[in-house]
């Protein structure tokens, strides 16, 4: 089926990528160390806005958050300039329910470019729209912070995602505005956007499938490092409600889990959902591709309680085997 091109987005992406290349040049040749640090800081909190925020909290309800944390994550997510929370969650829930089939907004069956960024430059199919309308989004509609952001998104996002990042270096330490704009707004936005897109493309194509060989999502450690933990994607599609979005209990390639755990320590995150190791083991043996060593999960990388569970599992296995 022929798709209609969203030309405004095409022209914007052309400018964004040219601007990002110029920003990369400026960060290597002219930007001050304070501007470079500010750039890095913005990349990190943008990533948390996607991973810990709109993805694990709002899309999958893998944990609950107090008002201060929801406000913080809403600010972080607005900084990403990747649609408002409500729209992002609706598309993501369609993606999980119809993963890599026609209704999936970024169907990886259509190839790398389409699932990476091509889908963003095409108008949404009626099939995807219809499936999205059938979803229950009452949890989002009951969240006043989500609905406030949705109502005022096109006032907030340009200021927070594009204006504020460039304004701070220019105003506070005298960076040339052209440097601030192309480094902290254009290059930073382009970089974080591609990071998110890699989860839809590379993490659905390249890697192994130790939890479910019957689906396209894979385990891609490089994507996890780039996105602070969103590349353990075969696990995530097998167990989408796990707040870690990965089997590992450590923070190996998964700083979003560290962020959520810290917020839980200070009481801002609670009711963290996780998958029992026995359930993971059963799934691995039933549908995995054979690349997961179910008796060698790297005990040193687990939380103490999980490590104890693995030790008990090992003991029982040796007694019965």
TrEMBL record:
Protein name per Swiss-Prot or TrEMBL: Acyl-CoA Delta(11) desaturase-like Protein
Q: Where in the cell is it found?
A: Membrane
According to its record, how does it sit in the membrane?
Multi-pass membrane protein
The record's gene field reads: AUGUSTUS-3.0.2_15349
Organism per entry: Tribolium castaneum (Red flour beetle)
Q: Name one GO cellular component term.
A: endoplasmic reticulum membrane
What residue ranges are annotated as transmembrane? 12-31, 152-173
Q: Which UniProt keywords apply?
A: Fatty acid biosynthesis, Fatty acid metabolism, Iron, Lipid biosynthesis, Lipid metabolism, Membrane, Metal-binding, Oxidoreductase, Transmembrane, Transmembrane helix
Q: Name one GO biological process term.
A: unsaturated fatty acid biosynthetic process
Domain topic, free-text comment: The histidine box domains are involved in binding the catalytic metal ions.
Q: Would you identify the family this protein belongs to, as annotated? A: Belongs to the fatty acid desaturase type 1 family.
Every Fatty acid desaturase domain range: 32-240
The cross-references to InterPro entries, in alphabetical order and at most eight, read:
Acyl-CoA_DS, FA_desaturase_dom, FADS-1_CS
Tell me one GO molecular function of this protein.
Answer: stearoyl-CoA 9-desaturase activity
Name any cofactors this protein relies on. Fe(2+)
């Amino acid at each position: 089926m022929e798709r209609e091109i969203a030309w405004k987005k095409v022209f914007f992406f052309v400018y964004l990528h040219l601007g990002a290349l110029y920003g990369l040049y400026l960060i290597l040749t002219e930007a001050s160390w304070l501007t470079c640090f500010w750039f890095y800081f913005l990349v990190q909190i943008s990533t948390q806005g996607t991973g810990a925020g709109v993805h694990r909290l709002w899309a999958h309800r893998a944990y609950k958050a107090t008002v201060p944390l929801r406000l913080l994550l809403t600010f972080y997510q607005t900084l990403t300039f990747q649609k408002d929370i409500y729209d992002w969650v609706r598309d993501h829930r369609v993606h999980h329910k119809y993963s890599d089939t026609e209704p999936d907004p970024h169907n990886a069956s259509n190839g790398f470019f389409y699932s990476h960024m091509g889908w963003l430059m095409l108008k949404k199919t009626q099939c995807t729209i219809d499936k999205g309308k059938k979803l229950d989004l009452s949890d989002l509609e009951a969240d006043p912070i989500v609905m406030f952001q949705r109502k005022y998104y096109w006032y907030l996002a340009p200021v927070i995602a594009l204006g504020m990042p460039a304004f701070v270096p220019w105003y506070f330490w005298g960076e040339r505005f052209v440097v601030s704009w192309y480094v902290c707004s254009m290059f930073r936005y382009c970089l974080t956007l591609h990071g998110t897109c890699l989860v839809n493309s590379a993490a659905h194509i390249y890697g192994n499938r130790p939890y479910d060989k019957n689906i396209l999502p894979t385990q891609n450690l490089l994507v996890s490092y780039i996105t602070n933990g969103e590349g353990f994607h075969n696990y995530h599609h097998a167990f989408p409600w796990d707040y870690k979005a990965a089997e590992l209990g450590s923070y190996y390639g998964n700083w979003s889990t560290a962020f959520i755990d810290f917020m839980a320590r200070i009481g801002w995150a609670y009711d963290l959902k996780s998958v029992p190791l026995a359930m993971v083991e059963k799934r691995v043996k039933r549908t995995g591709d054979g690349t997961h060593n179910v008796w060698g999960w790297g005990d040193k990388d687990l939380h103490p309680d999980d490590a104890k569970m693995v030790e008990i599992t090992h003991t029982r296995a040796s007694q019965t085997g």
